[in-house]
Design goal:
two-stranded antiparallel sheet, alpha/beta, 12 strands, 8-stranded mixed sheet, about 250 residues, about 30% helix
Length: about 250
């Protein structure tokens, strides 16, 4: 049975409540954790629950999205990484006994989470995003609020206050070197979209090589006929590739 989980975090000064959907234990296989992109929610990850029917699955709405609360500030990459850590600790996830997937900017939240070194995943899956971000330009929040993803306004999933705070807290940031210094013995599956689609891949050849330096093993799966949103346009392959990968590291 899928349950709604509400996890308190953020400390006493600016508290936050993070919403997650949790299937609970369902048999064989390590738990699978899904961290969506900038305007994603826990509900977006429900298709994993059906595909990975024999393992526990948890999908998360980050602060300011979905059913999570919207604090007035603290939307830096590190704040999202801390939220992810709070959720997994609260739900009893054990180190080296879970698979962690971050899609798009969710990859940065996952990398920030890893820097805490409190919970180490059995494997990491990065969906079409490098390990760094640029500072967002002024006016980004207003522009992004006007967009649609899959014919759905982004404001159905993320509040304007959150977008404004993300813009205000953004900064030029690369997490490759800090992750490399950890010398993690963790395998990485890197999912890369094609370059010819209307929304091309956000991964470069340099990103791929930098990731290779950061993880003990690198597997790349390319979606040449799809762009950044292969999760939606090539979902069957997306799920099959991930299922095959995580099964290798269930022990």
């Amino acid at each position: 049975m899928i349950t709604d989980q509400y996890i308190k975090g953020g400390g006493a000064t600016i508290p936050v409540t993070i919403h997650a959907l949790d299937t609970g234990p369902r048999g064989q296989g390590l738990p699978f954790i899904y961290v969506p992109g900038i305007a994603g929610t826990a509900e977006e990850g429900e298709f994993f629950f059906e595909k990975f029917e024999n393992r526990r699955c948890i999908a998360i709405s980050m602060r300011g999205r979905g059913k999570s609360s919207t604090p007035t500030r603290n939307y830096a990459i590190a704040d999202h990484g801390t939220d992810l850590l709070d959720v997994l600790k609260s739900l009893g996830i054990e180190s080296k006994k879970f698979h962690l997937h971050g899609y798009s900017i969710g990859a940065m939240y996952v990398l920030s989470f890893l820097l805490a070194e409190e919970l180490i995943p059995a494997s990491v899956i990065i969906g079409d995003h490098g390990g760094g971000v640029d500072r967002l330009p002024q006016g980004w929040a207003k522009h992004f609020a006007s967009l649609k993803i899959n014919d759905k306004s982004v404001l159905e999933n993320i509040r304007p206050e959150a977008l404004n705070a993300i813009e205000a807290d953004s900064t030029l940031l690369s997490l490759y070197e800090p992750i490399k210094e950890l010398k993690l013995q963790v395998p990485l599956l890197l999912l890369a979209g094609g370059q010819q689609a209307p929304f091309p891949s956000r991964l470069t050849a340099v990103d791929i090589e930098r990731y290779r330096e950061c993880f003990s093993e690198l597997t790349i799966s390319r979606f040449e006929d799809a762009g950044h949103f292969f999760r939606d346009t090539d979902r069957q392959k997306y799920l099959e590739v991930m299922e095959s990968f995580i099964k290798r590291f269930d022990d």
